[in-house]
Amino acid sequence: xxxxxxxxxxxxxxxxxxxxxxxxxxxxxxxxxxxxxxxxxxxxxxxxxxxxxxxxxxxxxxxxxxxxxxxxxxxxxxxxxxxxxxxxxxxx
Length: 92
Prior knowledge:
- The longest helix is centred in the N-terminal third of the chain and has 23 residues, at 2-24.
- This protein has helices at 2-24, 32-43, 47-50, 52-72, 76-84.
- The chain is mainly alpha-helical and 92 residues long.
- 75% of the residues lie in helices and 0% in strands.
- It contains 5 helices and no strands.
- It is globular and about 45 Å long.
- The two termini are 23 Å apart.
């Protein structure tokens, strides 16, 4: 359970801010918008309502892992723009 909480802390913190910045970036990758749209549909799919346990596994484990994987695939110019924007949260 601690690993799941730590995973969500990373995703909810830096990864979501970085993906939001990347969506608004003028040179965002072509795959980013369809990828995030597909992930959003996966997160709210009807299977989540039919089988709540499977839905919880999706939202607690798979969705954060895919989001983090998308961040890792972002090009360097988007990451540099995010770092220069001053939105990077320092760990203290």
